[in-house]
Request: fold
Amino acid sequence: GAVVSQHPSRVICKSGTSVKIECRSLDFQATTMFWYRQFPKQSLMLMATSNEGSKATYEQGVEKDKFLINHASLTLSTLTVTSAHPEDSSFYICSAGHRGPGNEQYFGPGTRLTVT
Amino acid sequence: EDQVTQSPEALRLQEGESSSLNCSYTVSGLRGLFWYRQDPGKGPEFLFTLYSAGEEKEKERLKATLTKKESFLHITAPKPEDSATYLCAGGPFGNEKLTFGTGTRLTIIP
Reply:
């Protein structure tokens, strides 16, 4: 149980284009999903918290207009990187909050974004 | 400000050589201390949640313990497949966000 999927696993796009990443909780409903960014050999950096049916809460320093988050249902959240630039190249990981005693987060497999 | 610190940054062990990873935390009103395993190029895999000081949890060769200030992940007789980065994270009550440590990169040498 508690499986989270992400699509695509890898994407290469040209500078100036937009890319959408999907995050789905496959066997549970998640009212809260989280989007992280991870640079090589570094830990996870929380970008935003996504609540179903409401606006996402962004961490300080994360551009809301660049990283658009939508949480349209209890099993799906999307992250759109708009007008991507090479510095946006990174490993993006989503997680879904599981309504257990500790509110564990279960992570997707990640999406490797390369902007050329 | 909530803080989670892991040590060592990297650890190399011979196969079968037991050791412990440390996670010290300062999280207001800790609701849970979480351990994850992350393989290169993959998302973190959930291992354990610890809720209160004195609690212990085990899974195969791994045992996690919790005190009021730190958590340990003990690895007994590790195998090469235990090589990974181990992350710990803390979360406060009333907030689903987690604060992650920077991880310990564990390498088990055959």
